[in-house]
User: What shape does this take?
Amino acid sequence: MITFLYTFALRDFLRVRRLLAWIFVVGVLFGIVKLVAIVSREPDGVKTYLRLADLFLFRVLALASAIISTAVVSAEIEQKTIVYLLTRPIPRWQLLLGRTFAAMTMCVIVGIMAGSALAVASMGVSGLGHNYFHRDILGIVVGSVFYTSFFVLLSLWINRSMIVNLLYAFGAETIFGNMPGDLKMLSIGYYLEVLSRRPSVTTGNQMQDAMNSLMVSTLTPQMAWLATLVGVVACLVISSLWFSTHEYLPREDIE
Amino acid sequence: MIELQNASRWYGQVIGLNDVTCKIEPGVTALLGVNGAGKTTLMRLITGQMMPTTGSITVCGIEPFCNPEVFRKIGYCPDIDNFYEHLSGRQFVEAMARMSGFDAAESKTRTQEMMVKVGMAERCDKIILGYSKGMRQRIKLAQAMLHEPDIILLDEPLNGLDPIGRRELMDLLNILAKQGKTILVSSHILFEVEQMTRNILLLHRGRLLASGDLRVIRELIDKHPHRIRIQTDRPRDVAEKLVALPYVQSVHLDARGNAIELRTKSPAEFYEELPKLCLDHGLPIEGISSPDNNLESVFRYLVGE
Assistant: This one.
């Protein structure tokens, strides 16, 4: 049953109109990176890639996850179509997981599109074969799974969760991600950076470089894997339990 | 089949359903009530979308909330017009069939059968976005009945259907009821509900005002005597004899002079006595009707609106 729910939801996510919206976002990203590459006149495209991947890649992933995750339950409630799903003989945890896995897949697709645009805009077509890009793909896959499971959980707790998800994706992630020391561990993006193992890039600005060196990670990739695994499993288990024991009704006036 | 025991449901400080106890047995039962009476709340409780705040609800002896076992037995046609608009009617119903546990081939077959049954076979390949209200209603009915459930709950199923569609639906429900299915239909269209069934549940402001056979309920309403209209070409003679009966409260002559209308609190006794009276006194009676022995009157009397 999960397989059918997965394909049913994924087909919905991959509708041309929705896909076009993401292609537009990726196109904008491509344009920005190309513009930065031209303006900075950096001869080494790899450096441009590393600097901009730090800045954009996991942000776009967080944005995609924040939006796509709401389609798992929240959008169904808004559109009132949840009633068709909840009155079928399917255990609710299966319903949730099938749709969550589809959302994760969609996030991976958007993330890889964004990563590819970034690699091509900064390093040319050969950037698609570069090792750093390949390592980022791992970060994209893990990030899609982690962000989506987290945002789905939020959407089960909060009405109209899109705004909260976006606030988290842009606000909390940025704030936590720039905190010194272990406080960074509150950011999902931080674990993804550790897993991507990107080398730090000197900016040429002595103050900035000094600040960056103070923010060096103490987290090992093994610990990042463990934290990610625990986080994802915890989010999915709590979401499944919550969704199986709470009411989710179409949003409308009571009768 | 369906049993509610002191079931109440609160939405914060608003009560949706207030201490309802009733049983719904096989056959067609009409769920009546004005907007906000609690009809949809009751349907949602039975279909396991909500839990009662107090009391209990069982469907075939099982609590329905989040219970796939119950959903196998239930077909629910909700009172919403929302769909996956980008899908065609066929794709939607087929997806619902898959979610009901049928494999792809079986889902296709059942979908086609249901499309024929609800009169959408020719039009079900267009996307739902372009459907009229009546077409949407038919698709909702199809998804509710495709897995041949024992219990069918239809929330305002007649809305948007054309007269032919209504007639077809009523015929279909009658056939299903004869097969032993339990069918609960909520509707505002009292005239048509009356044609479907005389078994009603009447909700008002969350409370169950009446349940059971319409005639029995009508007889229990003492506050409003039964009105009986008798057509005759000698209204004064008939009125003179009838007014002498102890259970006839009043008799009014029709302005056109070919009928009388009387009020009685004991219609059963009156109907028993009337033939004898006619024969004994040679009263010419051309027709008898009871203008308030219908669902609309019962509804009005009970709700007081």
Q: What stands out?
A: The interface with chain B takes residues 1, 4-5, 8, 12, 15, 79-81, 83-92, 244-245, 247-250, 252, 254-255 of chain A (CB under 8 Å). Chain A is about 75% helix and 0% strand. The CA atoms of residues 127 and 215 of chain A lie 28 Å apart. The mean pLDDT of chain A is 86.
